Amino acid sequence: MRLIYTCLFGLLLPAILLRLYWRGMRAPAYRLRWRERLGFYRGPVRGGGIWFHAVSVGEAEAAFPLIQRLLSKFPQLPVLVTTTTPTGSARVAAVLGDRVEHVYLPYDLPWVVARFFGRFRPSLAVFMEKELWPNLFAECRARSVPIFLVNARLSARSARAYLKIPSLIGPVLACIDTIAVQTVEDGERFVEIGARPVQVRTVGNVKFDVTVDPNTLAEGKALKASAFAGRWVWIAASTHAGEEELLLAQYRRLKAAMPALLLMIVPRHPERFGVVQKLCETQGLRVLMRSSGMSCRTETDVYIGDSMGELKLLYAAADAAFVGGSLVEVGGHNVLEPAAIGTPVLFGPWMFNFQEIANRMLAVGAACQCADAEALGDAVSDLYRDRTSGRVLAERAEGFVQANRGATDGVVELLVAGLAETEAGRFLV
């Protein structure tokens, strides 16, 4: 089955590269360093250490505490980080800088993968959340590189899809040494699709260990007091196509009864900043971009967060937070960041990517789920009118995050034990 997969991937490679070029028309970063995706890299490398793969921003943010903990304990340990998207790449550069090596993940073709391994020679591979690559994993096994799937989660929907291709997924799972899952249910689903129970360890979700720099909180409060003075700020974060139209309609419905309301939109993908700006302007709404550095006026309707790496700061400047990807069938995004910051959390009906966390937050009254856009607007209106309920929601959300911290410690212990059995063990001194 892997041979068929490889042949299909190879046949599709020209189309994949053309799509990369097309995406680069809107987001030029996609056209940069494209050779890395084919296994061609520049510059010297240390090699021989631990390799983390994080697809994009969300996975990278989850990996950062693990990487920083390892670097703090073992400063000589070589660390390689791969991502798939330019936004993920930018976050790695911003947070970790030259403390790690960073390149794009090579395409999953045997000759490309071989070039990658020949250059970087990792001793141990760590894949964040749910990354299953047949040729990459087979090459790890052939080179005796242990694989750890960390902070792993598997939704019922994904499990059903994997069950349809057992002859491909089974050998991939067999290459993995340890699957550190977020919940017991995740572990059961991995076993259901072919993992051995001995591979699975229930460790918890490292995203609960999100760090909030006090300086970031202070900057957020300062932004609220200056740029948003006198405004009640509703942030819609990590939004996708199809959501902004719904949010703008609710803003227009609510504005007459909520004159201080300001809608702050932070699109998930940078290439959509201008698209959302034009959408607002065509509806006659007055827009201010974060990059302008200006403060909102009384007549400003929408503030667009067209910056990278500032989401926590913007959450801290808001009175209520809607987490996007949940009004459309994307599956939702990380609700723990606004919860940790102390901003009331709202999300829509589509939360299958974070279903377990969403259910647990709802069970303790730490978030509000809205069945549709109109229900979301009603929830924002309720928080605007009843500030006490907003404070209670935020306090419960903060308490929920605090009560579930600690998974990072368990994962680090697993990784250190794994490294000790490899050539990289010499760096653990």
Chart the SSEs and their pairings.
Blueprint: H1 2-26, E1 50-53, H2 57-73, E2 79-83, H3 86-96, E3 101-104, H4 110-120, E4 124-128, H5 134-142, E5 147-152, H6 156-162, H7 166-174, E6 178-181, H8 184-192, E7 200-202, H9 214-226, E8 232-239, H10 243-255, E9 261-267, H11 273-282, E10 287-289, E11 302-304, H12 311-316, E12 320-323, H13 336-341, E13 345-347, H14 355-363, E14 368-369, H15 373-385, H16 387-403, H17 407-420
Parallel strand pairs: 1-2, 1-4, 2-3, 4-5, 5-6, 6-7, 8-9, 8-12, 9-11, 10-11, 12-13, 13-14
Helix pairs in contact: 2-3, 2-17, 4-5, 5-7, 10-15, 15-16
What does this protein look like?
The chain has two domains: 25-204 and 406-427, Rossmann fold (3-Layer(aba) Sandwich), CATH 3.40.50; 214-403, 3-Layer(aba) Sandwich (Rossmann fold). The two termini are 43 Å apart. The chain contains 17 helices and 14 strands. It is globular, with a radius of gyration of 22 Å. The strands form two sheets. Strands 3-2-1-4-5-6-7 form a seven-stranded parallel beta sheet, sandwiched between helices. It has a seven-stranded parallel beta sheet with strand order 10-11-9-8-12-13-14. With 429 residues, the protein is an alpha/beta fold.
